[in-house]
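FORM 7B: Structural annotation worksheet

SECTION A. Query
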Amino acid sequence: MNHIELRPLDDDDLDAIFEMMRDREAIQMAAFTAQDPDDRDAFDAWIARQRASADVLSLVVTENGGFAGTAAAFTVDGDREVSFWIARHAWGRGVATEALRLLISREAARPLFARVAAHNTGSRAVLERNGFTEVSRNVDFAPGLGRQTEEVVYTLTPTLDGY
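SECTION B. Predicted structure
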């Protein structure tokens, strides 16, 4: 197994994150992405807002010390949500599963929520392997697809011991 870690995001990560979030295959899987993934100014403004918010935990996923993606926790309408985006070169090796496990071990809030495009079976499996269960589905416009698509909402509830 490769060594997976989470570390704080720094300025040197921005180019790698921008390029990762422009990957067309990944955009198709994520579906709910930026309106224009090639707009660097919009990306820079978005990530600056994320980094400036005390409510957002933005982390870089590393695999054997190298960049492998991002993981984040943030609040939307009072609900604490988690998100992960793994670079394509790190797909299929358990990086996302371990990164999410590490993220939820750092994030004390429960319940936690996550949203994923229904067709993204890989990310859905990562959530389920980490104890998330499906709670609802809705249809919304997905910029990454340019059309309406189904989104699945997952939750991770507290266990009997409260964590």
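SECTION C. Observations
The radius of gyration is 15 Å. DSSP finds five helices and seven strands in the chain.

SECTION D. Sign-off
Analyst initials: ____
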